[in-house]
Write a structure and sequence with these properties.
Largest sheet: 6 strands, antiparallel, barrel
CATH architecture of the largest domain: Beta Barrel
Number of strands: 14
Shape: elongated
Number of domains: 2
CATH topology of the largest domain: Thrombin, subunit H
Strand content: 15-25%
Helix content: 40-55%
Order of helices and strands: HHHHEHEEHEEEEEEEEEEHHHE
Structural class: alpha+beta
Length: 363
């Protein structure tokens, strides 16, 4: 019902039927609700596609009508072709214009199809997930196993330092990128203090490439109170932002600015940031100067240094709200007190690093 109501508002907004007060309120909601903004963009694109289809259909009908009139005015072979000539002289310009428009429409349709396909090809070619390459490790493991003569001897398992994750609640919930833990037999996390825990994936959002993990280690008690809070509003262009992650086995700090309010190919669910990132950063936290969590590091644009992307925190919060009922009660208790605000950057990092983990994937 809520989805239907949202689409009613979108239809009214796009048609210009919305009252002035409602329009102001709706536009304010668009700036804070990233999912609604994405629905508006998709609906607008759909209407434009349908409108283009209708124009091409009308043009086809007009050409068919011209053709019918042309046939009806054709005289017998024995008669002088005066009617033909008169009709041609009268409608030659119109027919030429219609034919030109038809050709343009056909090529336009073909171009539109190619444009719709282009983002997929470009994403494959230019968007790079920030995970470590594990194929070499897999091949090495296979070679070791094949070289073992004693079949009774247990085969070693390979561990890939696949990415980064960070805590979202004190009682054992954390988030990382879905591609980091995809296909894992088991997953362990470890922070800068050397605390290690076994975790399991409890929820996955494939669309936004996010996975929520939960500590399953019986020795675990609590992460303690998180020092950061989750920002629900859109961040401003040019804001200073930073991240902590594991592009290697030691934790690494990266700092830059928010360079665009949309991500790769205009994706409204993500930010573009000017922080050079490397494999292993994926799934790490993105914070503003005040220590508010504003996003989750997701990828970068190949060939453009410093063009990196992060999923907005609004989608992480939406994902937390969609957790299965047995997990919602605990994971939804998010930190409300931000102890990073007003601290210098080194002090912020000292408090933050214990809540950021390297995610070790075992295959």
């Amino acid at each position: 019902m809520l989805e239907y109501r949202a689409y009613e508002q979108i239809e009214s907004y796009l048609k210009g039927d919305m009252a002035a007060e409602d329009k102001v309120a709706f536009e304010a909601l668009l700036r804070t609700d990233a999912r609604l903004a994405e629905q508006l963009r998709e609906h607008k694109q759909l209407l434009q596609t349908l409108q283009g289809f209708g124009q091409r259909r009308n043009l086809r009908q007009q050409l068919n009508r011209f053709h019918s009139e042309l046939e009806s005015d054709t005289v017998a072979p024995t008669a002088a072709p005066a009617g033909w000539k008169v009709y041609w002289n009268r409608h030659a310009q119109t027919i030429a214009v219609a034919a030109s428009v038809s050709l343009l429409s056909v090529f336009g349709a073909l171009w539109s199809v190619q444009q719709l396909k282009a983002p997929v090809r470009q994403q494959t070619a230019r968007y790079v997930e920030l995970r470590r390459e594990v194929e070499r490790l897999k091949k090495t493991q296979t070679a070791i196993i094949n070289g073992i003569n004693d079949a009774s001897k247990p085969a070693p398992r390979s561990a890939a330092f696949s990415g980064t994750g960070f805590a979202i609640s004190a009682d054992g919930f954390l988030v990382t990128s879905s591609h980091v833990v995809e296909g894992a037999d088991s997953v362990l996390i470890e922070n800068a203090a050397g605390h290690k825990y076994k975790v399991t994936e409890v929820y996955r959002d494939q669309i936004h490439d996010l996975s929520i993990l939960k500590v399953s280690d019986p020795a675990f008690v609590s992460f303690g109170n998180l020092p950061y809070t989750f920002k629900t509003q859109e961040s401003d262009l040019g804001e200073r932002v930073y991240t902590l992650g594991y592009p290697r086995e030691d934790i690494v700090f990266g700092e830059g600015s928010l360079s665009s309010s949309t991500g790769f190919e205009g994706d409204t669910t993500a930010y573009q940031i000017s922080i050079p990132l490397n494999p292993g950063n994926s799934g790490g936290p993105l914070l503003d100067d005040k220590g508010n969590l504003i996003g989750v590091i997701s990828g970068k644009q190949a060939g453009q240094e410093g063009a990196s992307f992060a999923i907005k925190s609004a989608y992480l919060l939406q994902m937390i709200s969609e957790l299965p009922s047995e997990d919602t009660s605990s994971a939804a208790v998010l930190q409300r007190n931000n102890t990073l605000s007003g601290q210098s950057r080194p002090q912020q990092l000292k408090k933050l690093k214990d809540y950021v983990f390297v995610v070790k994937v075992y295959n």
